[in-house]
Design brief:
Length: about 270
């Protein structure tokens, strides 16, 4: 009796370790977090729902990302995407909006934290077995310091190495850095026989993303539009001129104008 129980436990443990216990109903779940220690995907209980139409001042970025994602879910050629630029400008929100727009067509999203990126290949078997779904591997706030070398391994992972990347997987990443890795004037040190090699090595990871979208400071008018949009969303009612004056004062104190600051301003007002 004990031998039989131990045998069953041993089989269950083997299934757990090789990830085969990750039996998820992808029809009901659309967003996941990668758990590298268990080699499994943990479903999000309440996925964030963002409408791309609510993201103002990003018309060009929305057009290009939507087209790329549309091609992907339809089984056509599509690019890995890097969304880079100023903080709080809607990079992550735009990626999440793609899930809202295309989940009904089979798009699913798995978030991987930066410290887990070297385990991404362990996920391939789980996702390749679901060819009826298309998976975006989402890495938020991706960047590296000079002392970090993980970016070299990530280049190999994104290129496939000796293991082919499943055709139903794409990488979408956000970063405050255009090239993902800190670059300095010392990278052009004349003591190096080919000084450009230092720089080329550092920017080569960004080259793995075929579509690179820049996000920049927004205009004052766009900032105020976004603030008014959030005011409607949260049921805030103020005289328009007073509202705008307060919103601009808030942005000065916050040190910038972006969508995140606009939302924080409206949240600070509470329900009026």
């Amino acid at each position: 009796m004990l031998t039989s129980v131990l045998s069953k436990l041993d089989r269950l443990l083997d299934r757990y370790l090789d990830g085969s216990m990750n039996d998820i109903d992808f029809a009901d779940r659309i967003a996941f977090r990668w758990n590298p220690s268990a080699k499994s995907l943990k479903p999000a209980r309440k996925p964030v729902r963002i409408n791309a139409g609510d993201l103002l001042g990003l018309d060009r970025q929305k057009e290009l990302l939507t087209k790329n994602t549309f091609n992907f879910v339809r089984g056509n050629r599509a690019n890995n995407v890097l969304l880079w630029g100023e903080r709080g400008t809607g990079k992550s929100s735009l990626v999440k909006a793609m899930l809202t727009a295309f989940s009904a067509e089979g798009l699913r999203m798995a978030q991987v934290y930066k410290h887990d990126i070297l385990t991404i290949q362990d996920m391939y078997g789980l996702l390749a077995d679901k060819p009826e779904y298309r998976f975006i591997i989402f890495i938020d706030d991706l960047s590296f310091e000079e002392s970090q070398t993980d970016y070299k391994e990530l280049k190999t992972i994104m290129d496939g190495g000796l293991e082919e990347i499943p055709e139903n997987i794409l990488f979408y990443a956000t970063s405050n850095r255009k090239h993902l890795i800190a670059t300095r004037f010392s990278d052009r040190d004349n003591d190096v026989i080919r000084p450009s090699d230092n720089l080329e090595e550092k920017i080569s990871l960004a080259d793995r993303f075929g579509l690179r979208l820049g996000f920049h400071h927004i205009t004052q008018d766009t900032y105020l539009e976004i603030a008014e949009l959030y005011a409607d969303k949260y049921g805030v009612r103020l005289d328009r001129s007073e509202f705008r004056e307060c919103a601009l004062r808030w942005s000065l104190e916050a040190g910038g104008r972006n969508g995140r600051i606009a939302e924080q301003f409206v949240r600070g007002l509470g329900r009026q």
